[in-house]
Amino acid sequence: MLKSKNTLGIIFFPAFDWAISPTHPERQERLLYTQDQLREEGLFDIEGISEYKPDVASVEDVERVHFCFPDVPSVATRSHLISAGGAMKAGDLVMEGKTDRAFAMVRPPGHHAMKVVHGSRGFCTINIEAIMIEHIREQYGHKRIAIVDTDCHHGDGTQDIYWHDPDTLFISLHQDGRTLYPGTGFPRDLGGPNAMGRTLNIPLPPNTSDEGFLMAVERIVLPILADFKPDLVINSAGQDNHFSDPITNMNFSAGGYAAMNDMLKPDIAVLEGGYSIQGALPYVNLGICLAMAGVDYSHVREPNYNAERIRQDARTTEYITELCKQLPALYFDPPEFVSRDDSRQGIISGDKFVRHKQIYYDTDGINEVQQESVTLCKQCRGLYKVETRADSGPLCLGVEIPVDACPECRAKGYQTVEDAQIKGTYRYIQLINRLDKEYVRYGF
Amino acid sequence: MLLGIDVGGTHTDAVAIDIGDAPAVAASCKVPTRHHDLLSSVTEALTTILGQVDKSAVTQLNLSTTLSTNAIVQNKTEDVGVIVSAGPGIDPHNFMPCKDFHVIDGSIDHRGNEVRALSTRQLAEAVDACRGNGVRVFAAVSKFSTRNPRHENLIRRTVCNCKSVDVCEHADFVTLGHQLGGALNFPRRVATAYFNCAVWRLYNEFATAVEEALDEMGLGHVKVNILKADGGTMPLPQSRTLPVQSIFSGPAASVMGIIALTDIFHDSVILDIGGTTTDIAVFADGAPLIEREGIDIGSHPTLVSALKVHSIGIGGDSAISVVGPEVRVGPNRLGPSVCLGGERVTLTDALNYVGACKVGDVAASRKAVDAYAAARTLTGEKLAQGAVAYAAQAIQDATRALVEEINSKPVYTIHELLEGKKIVPKKVYLMGGPAEAMREELFQRFQLSTEVPANFDVANAIGAALTRTTWELELFADTQRHVLFIPTLSYRENVPSGYDLDDAKRDAVNQLTMQLDSMGVFLKAEDAQITHASSFNMVEGYDRVGRNIRVKCQVRPGVIKTFGEGR
């Protein structure tokens, strides 16, 4: 019988009774064939690989990460809470030492969900990785965590959530934003002034195949991971770089995905996108499971795989080679933050960093405007404050006292909330106090 | 009059049951099991029983036998040619069950599309190699054959090299993977097909011998059924092509016995405390739980479905040992108890010592326990009590672990997760030799109502006698490809685009009824149970192109009559 080198916990929650709409790519059928393939391969009979059921994330688990307006139940369905709970379960398995690694093969996905949530963006509502990570930090102590987002779309939600966090390294490999939703994720995006270089974007040109992906991982991601020395490596495992994916333009293969996972050696992987539900997901997911478990994956291949047909051209290789030369410096030697006259990039005003954002929730058709500010504090990462309004809806406020808050920023956080209640015109106010594990809502 | 025979490890138990308004045991006996000649044990038990009842009133004999299990455990199996087509995925050589194992290029995908045809050249070479080794039985298995058996059928035709469907010159028997069940699991299908072939000849010789013996005893008219591990029976003629299903039916007989002897409504724990082991089974709302996938044979997981029974090495004959300050029991059996002429003190001796029972020579137990204790600077009292307490605790711990494992099983929909049933045992049922003696001690641990039914000593044979015939099938329909397929029956039919879940459920029940009817079993409509039904829209681009429908239908394992108060 086969025995795995690493014990692997798989949380498989295909949400067979949930869909965005009957013919939407994110629908009941999405993990059906993956399930068939994993069962037919006898994956769960391999000694060391076991299946676990997901937990259900509570409202507080979500509020530890997000400012949800008007409230969590209005934006997130039970399926979202189970999907996040599936990721949390993966975190618990690894943190409690029950398994060496864990893969949350759950849906719906989450990496486009930002700090503030008014609705769904890019099929995502709540950020299941971030909910897992903050659950881990609250339960098992503060950790340095690296997230490598290998979804074909830029992980803009995860980037937004960790923009100001120096203890979270976020690296996103994705199809160049000039050619694909959400149109973001460029090398100049490096994180807020307190966390410059902790965000790194690797935009790859369309038609990048195994060669380009593996080169970028080897030359950019691995050296940075080695330097950052995270306590945990998390893979936001989107599988839509596949050559057969209907909504993207990349040429990655199942074997390539498995090899990439083998190189990254993530402690936890969380499924994100991937909409070639018949031609890719069954094989990619199988390859990743085997790679995580340390079982031979060399026989995993798509039925219609033809390396020659999907090989990247010489120009693409040349372009990526150049990226590999330039990008590491952005992490190892990030430029100083320069306050220019552009409030969308962020400006420094007194002791505060201030940024204006406009966010479009494509799945739900909502427009949001935000003003975000972070105190530039020498003692801690600063008090976070966000004023937000969705379309012409009411103005709402979110305040976060960071986990390492100094007494001054903590006091300022409470003061801000109190002032907002008395003098402000906010319909809803939410306080996230990571220092004291206090999560409060006003106006609900 | 129904007969039940359970060929066990030590004894072959037999009962005759009168089924009037209330079933009653008309005769029962225990004879020693002779493992080298099981037939003689069966005929001896039958002769004993038939001496006490009216032969002509007997209509049915249900038989549970360890024959196939023993053949495998003792390596008395036949060489099998296993020919598989796997396609991409995990390297099939990891699942090689025997030396004549051949992987042929070709692949079928999860929808049942043939992605690559089977290599006829490789296949011919493989068959020649097997024939060269004198192989006469073959297993043909392909990945996703439960969606499309094309490759398995082609392997079979090549192996037989014959035109007719029934007669075959080159092979005595071929197992087709898809006929073993509709569940997806290629490695298990390989192992199950292999074992089915490996015991086929031996099993068929036994089946023939049983039929002849019955004829000689004037019981030629009796319908014979064989017990399966899932708590059902299959008619003897059908069992000839599915001998693997008779493996590990022993614990099933015990569980069905408890069902027959009591009325179980709640979540419950069943403990069959035997000589060597205690078998633990769990009931949810009065129904026994089955293994989700199938049992392991040797180290091979298979598709043989079975009641979920966990065995631990603690029974009446389990030896007592002292390790440091702790008194332990089992997991080894080192001969019979002292009270029955053995040499090593056992749990039964300890139970004798503390006065919980009076088995055999109680004085011998006391003397041996005292001597064993003295050599380890303990008092006999302390040793005996320690042993009984240890056994009860170990049984409770194992039960708890089993319930916890069942409660953590994965679920696939929001509904299941939120409404998810959690098993909380409300009652404990005990059977087997030391059941009565262990009752008080176990009650102290579980703090739950603890019942030992009457006739608990031959409960397994009663269970065998009353177990009804079961069958299950899985229906798979793909309306884009316009096909319906029932793997276990090799039944294929074209369906229209409008075919839906209700049609599929109706067809599944009809096919199940017809199948049982052809085996001479009458099925009431309410006995057919749909255990799984799902329908997924298949979308290409943004259009629905068809439905992917899966239905599983079964006759729920059960007994035809119970002795319980609710009868």
UniProtKB/TrEMBL annotation, chain A:
* Domain Histone deacetylase: from-to ranges: 80-278
A Pfam family matched by this chain, by name? Hist_deacetyl
Which residues span the membrane? none
InterPro entries reported for this sequence: HDACs (IPR000286), His_deacetylse_dom (IPR023801), His_deacetylse_dom_sf (IPR037138), Ureohydrolase_dom_sf (IPR023696)
Stated family: Belongs to the histone deacetylase family.
Q: What is this protein called?
A: Histone deacetylase
In its UniProt entry, the species of origin is given as: Pseudodesulfovibrio methanolicus
TrEMBL record, chain B:
Span of domain Hydantoinase A/oxoprolinase: 189-471
Pfam families for the chain: Hydant_A_N, Hydantoinase_A
Q: Which domain of life is it from?
A: Bacteria
Cite the Hydantoinase/oxoprolinase N-terminal domain residue spans from the record: 3-158
Database matches in SUPFAM superfamilies: Actin-like ATPase domain
- For this entry, the protein name equals Hydantoinase/oxoprolinase family protein
Q: Which organism is it from?
A: Pseudodesulfovibrio methanolicus
Traced from the root, the source organism's taxonomic lineage reads: Bacteria, Pseudomonadati, Thermodesulfobacteriota, Desulfovibrionia, Desulfovibrionales
